[in-house]
Amino acid sequence: MGDRLGAEEVAVYRWLALRRQFDLSRMAAELALDEATVTRAVDALLQVGLLQRHTEDDQVMRAVDPHLAAAVATAPLGRRAASRPVSR
Q: How does DSSP assign the chain, residue by residue?
């Protein structure tokens, strides 16, 4: 996936943002994708923090605000930069 989302990831993200209920076969049919592609897209979105599974039900997912996901992903870099001495 690299540093960009593909069309499949964007489509899956939007679908789950609207429905919140993970339904692999329905999602694949409505998005005209095969189930393996949908599964890979969900896994990629979970990995980068744009989706979160419900703690008690794996079939419920929440789409995370992209700005929040970016802030969480870059927070360690900010902390590292803040802890380094300023060179003059």
A: -TTS--HHHHHHHHHHHHH-B--HHHHHHHHT--HHHHHHHHHHHHHHTSEEE-SS-TTBEEEPPHHHHHHHHHHHHHHHHHHSPPP-
